[in-house]
Amino acid sequence: MTVILAVDDDPAIGHLLNEILSAFGYKSTTVANSATEALRLIASGAVSPDVILLDIQMPEMDGIELCRRIRAIPKHSKTPIVMLTAMAEKSYVEDAFLAGATDYVTKPFDPMALVSRVRVAAMLAEEQKKASQVAVSPSSARTVEHADFAHPFVIDEIPGVVAANVLCNFIEQMRRIERMGLVAFAINVPQSAQICARVTRAQYESFVTDLAAEIMEVLVSARAFIAHMGRGTFVAVAPKSRVPDRGTIIDSLRAAINDPDRVYSDGTRDVLDVELGQFVSPALISRESGAELLERAVAKLNRLDLATNRSTLNVA
């Protein structure tokens, strides 16, 4: 049974959430009327939620700060958190995902849409639970195989670095606000395959995490979000108006990842290169999903003639 914690300072909304979720089979829902009450319930163990629903606009502590504090609790660092709010402005959406939100539903919400989001969050929670129960051999004792190289993994504790499914949710929310103002582009470090082949899984994941930190440092002014897609590739999504030109991004990334004082977590000092895919925007007419946009960005990287990698911003 999926355990849900809903936090909203409006008792009427809390009651409505409980009624809707119960009608669709989610019978174990606890409603907290403040951030303080929610944190108390979690800390005391009175509620151990699989999915958390948070209102943003609450007195004393808003939902974004509450999301940030919940993410700081080790047990709930990955618990799916869905924001429920009337605050649809771009800054609120960005801040919510930066704080660790998994998804975002705008009030007044459609019950079917709400339940659909909760269902996806519950499935994600179940997948995470199963993954945590799978016994694996010590990562330091085995070599990374090709399957590990191809398979993306979640990078924690770097603001703006999210799982691919969370990046898709961010795209869906932002495109309602930015419309054609979003761009996505892929970033690849071609030496990743060779590094992956010679180090342990733990070392490779540390190397990729270090790369993610360097990428975010370069793109922080663009308020970009990035996700690891596997095969040494990341996809970044940001408002077009904030993104530097292609040459600046490439030069900055090359300088950052090849800092002479930089030794990556796996001990390597390899001279690393950067490949930058064409910039793509959500299709104007078609109902292209967030996942399809990410796939198109990666495809543009794979088809890119590297001789054009220093061209000016070109949205495809």
Let me know the average pLDDT.
86
For the biggest sheet, the summary is: 5 strands, parallel
**What is the overall silhouette?**
globular
Helix content: 40-55%
Oligomeric organization of the protein chains: single chain
Order of helices and strands: EHEHEHEHEHHHEHHEEHEH
The CATH homologous superfamily of the largest domain is named Reverse transcriptase/Diguanylate cyclase domain
**Would you identify the regions where 5 or more consecutive residues have pLDDT less than 50?**
135-144, 305-316
Number of domains: 2
> What's the CATH class label of the largest domain?
Alpha Beta
CA-CA gap between termini: 45 Å
The total of helices stands at 11
Indicate the proportion of strand residues. Answer: 5-15%
C-alpha-based Rg, rounded: 20 Å
Order of neighbouring strands in the sheet with most strands: 2-1-3-4-5
